[in-house]
Amino acid sequence: MAADDQRVNVNQSEAPALFRDVNFCIVISKTLGEAQARRLTTLLVDNGATHLPLSSDSSTEPVEETTHIISSTTDFPVYQGACDTFVPVVKPEWVDASVSRKRILPVRPYSPDPRLFFSGVVVTCADIPEGDKDAIVGGVLAMGGQHTGTVTKTTTHIVALTEENDKCRRALSKGVKVKIVLPHWFDDCLKLGKKIDERPYSLPSPEIGRLSLADPVGIPPNPNLKGAISAHPSGAPPTSVESPSPHRRGFKVFEGKRVMLSDDLGLGSRLRGTVEDLIASGGGSMTGSVHKADIFICQYREGSNYITAARAGKDVGNLTWLYYLITNNTWTSPMRRLLHYPIARGGLPGFTNFKISLSNYGGDARLYLENLVVAAGGEFTKSMRQENTHLITARPYSEKCAAAQEWGIHMVNHLWLEESYAKWQVQSLTNPRYTHFPHRTNLGEVAGQTQIDRQAVEKFFYLADQDMASEDDEKERWVQNDREEPRSEVDSGIMKDIGIAIPKRTSALPSRSFNTPTPTGRKTLNANNQEAYRTPNHSTECNENEPPSTTSSRGAKERAVARLHDLAPDIALYEKEKKRVGGVVWGGKRQASTEVEKGRKRGFNGDNQIGPDADENLRYTKKTKRPPVIMRLLLTGYKRWANSPKTEEEEKKRLRDLGILCTQNPLDCTHLAAPSIVRTQKFVSAIAVAPIVISTHWVDACLDKGQYLPLEDFLLRDTDGEERLGLRLADTLKRAKKNNRRLLAGETIYCTSNIYDTYKTIIEANGGRCLIFRGSSRGGAGSNASKANGTTDTDDESDGREIDDMLLVSGETPEEMNLWVAFDKMALSEGRGAKVTRAEWLLDVVMKQELEWEEVEKFCFDR
């Protein structure tokens, strides 16, 4: 590889070379060795490419002229820099495929990005209905896969219902290494957003059609969690035979890196010495300055050193991550695994009230999730009790699951926990991804694949107030370069008046607010009117009767400078208002609140509140031109973005720039857009909040004209749909507003497992309680159960319903019909009657927002 260290340009052929415009780097890793790298380099250079070796320094960006990075993984130091500079990262297969086809292929299907979980999948469909085929192909393409019309050498999957078709016969007869799977596999992968094992879906004898849903499923191994199950490693880093010896040749994971260990790690002198020796053996060096460090190791997401390192794009990880690098001698991003990144003291806001138990997870996955619950600030309980708030389960079949359904405890998969922690915001339980459980899959096999959300970390943890910084850090931050930042005349004048010298400033990233609670913290308001938490030891409040501290006058002056710099916009506004006829009208805080009030008046009416948009609107000051949220829009049945996630992302950003925030939560929307009256889960659920219903043509018009258009001409009018469903949309919305999401309040409705996932959201959106019924006669939400739990039913005979009737919503499959007798027995055991109705009844009630119990008989099954 020595010869490859120089830039090479080869273009000896008269015809234009295939890769003549390609300047590439190759990342060596465990899955892309040096021998393969040499072969790829030769192949690319012979076809006109230029080799630009990655720099060996601590740079976070690739060489400026680089057009492609060849890597089998995203775990290399400059990956994020490549993303920021739009340099594509492709797998080695891209090179071979491009040479084979004699043209440069698109890079997306060959991306190693784990979010594109169908990358490497080449699918063809056989005996699949056209509509299902289009949906499968669209999903595969959106998630990085490819589609081919015939079976070729590169085909990896055939989607079929049976093997009795030409494509399957041809593949089997020629011995093509291809997996023949049911379309259900793609459905489940797309619903979860993860690629799961194909074996339960593989023909000729798929488990999902051969075994019962309740049959046990083994605990799958998960190598992805090795070395990442806890944020608190115990003892010294491993030095076993399997791990690289400090004196072993080839141990160079820290080569050229300067590492700083934070004081919050609490390392003893002996252990600290061991760690430093290992870093030195790996080619690294130690430093006591965060500005000189390439890697910063700390336990908590707090303090000036953490903020400085994170803002500068340095690698910030915890001790577990450091041990992982030493053990595996391979670099990986500390954000790649959730528990490799420093934790937040006090946990995720809102999570401290949760009591969470686990079911059906085993091995490393169980330990990992237990630790993640604690890291998020929740309380983990081994046993299941009625005071539990959540059950996280890999499959919906266990004694704990049955208890959760009977007690009304939220039951979700681990993706809810992981994504809440990664995005640092408690995720909505109505998201179907979190309540989806493939029939013959234990979801423990995909635990640990979620990564830390960089934008969330930047939003919630990049501290703007540097009061806690030490004097040395403050001094070094001010004088680390000679560039001087311009100041306003007001700012400079006031500082001179109070006797503070103006130090040189560096150009820094925009400051952001820090609103994560600490155990001893209390709620205050920061400079942007946002809620923040400060410990009493660092309160910015002062008492005018107390003398100022003189323990560190220089530090106090420098902190005063920092505070004045933050106050500069308000001071400038004050000076401007003084010149206005009539004097000062108002200051910065009142102006911000007035902007929010304007947004509230524009976007909401009636009893609706500004709700979750308040904090977001307050952030839009003069520094950012993005308008506040004036509409939370839920789209359903919208075809413009079908099979085009990139267009969807770009146009959603354009809508957001118009004040339109697209939401996926039906209960969070103020406006609902649809092409017609449709009975999708989103449409039916959203009706409960009485949104303004408009046509999707309005969205098209706003995007095409680039402006927020009046709604009056785009209100949804669908006379055919109203006639078909026997309703008037305007009357439905009036009743929904009057019902205030209490149409089914006080009602407990049972559903069979086949329809539970869909109708649970609809029932709960209208204030009801939905329980799954699997044939157990252990009791439900009847009068006896209610008394046992200290509650009482609120049924009233005047509403036309017999008070003792229990209701089961069911389909007509033989499996569901077999449950009806068991439901009768359960109702009888509690001294109540039983009715089994079609799902059509529930849709009719919710779409009309009118509940008349005598009408239920029309929808009941004849038994």
Radius of gyration from the CA trace?
A: 31 Å
Main beta-sheet annotation = 4 strands, parallel
Number of domains: 7
Strand order, largest beta sheet = 2-1-3-4
Tell me roughly what share of residues is in helical segments.
25-40%
The total beta strand count reads: 26
Any guess at the CATH architecture of the largest domain?
Answer: 3-Layer(aba) Sandwich
Q: Given the C-alpha coordinates, what overall shape results?
A: globular
Q: What percentage of the residues does DSSP assign to strands (E)? A: 5-15%
User: How much is the average pLDDT?
Assistant: 78
CATH classification, class level of the largest domain: Alpha Beta
CATH topological fold name of the largest domain:
Rossmann fold
Poorly predicted runs are: 1-13, 240-247, 464-555, 581-623, 778-803
User: Assembly state here?
Assistant: single chain
Give a topology summary.
Blueprint: E1 23-26, H1 34-46, E2 50-51, E3 68-70, H2 79-84, E4 89-90, H3 92-101, E5 122-125, H4 130-142, E6 146-147, E7 157-159, H5 166-173, E8 179-181, H6 184-192, H7 207-210, E9 258-261, H8 269-281, E10 285-286, E11 295-297, H9 304-311, E12 315-317, H10 319-328, E13 355-359, H11 363-375, E14 379-380, E15 390-393, H12 399-407, E16 410-412, H13 414-423, H14 454-461, H15 471-479, H16 489-497, E17 522-525, E18 531-534, H17 553-578, H18 588-603, H19 613-618, E19 631-635, H20 645-657, E20 660-662, E21 671-674, H21 681-686, E22 692-695, H22 696-705, H23 719-725, H24 729-739, E23 748-752, H25 753-765, E24 769-773, H26 783-788, E25 805-810, H27 814-817, H28 820-829, E26 833-838, H29 839-848
Parallel strand pairs: 1-2, 1-3, 3-4, 5-6, 5-7, 7-8, 9-10, 9-11, 11-12, 13-14, 13-15, 15-16, 19-20, 19-21, 21-22, 23-24, 23-25, 25-26
Antiparallel strand pairs: 17-18
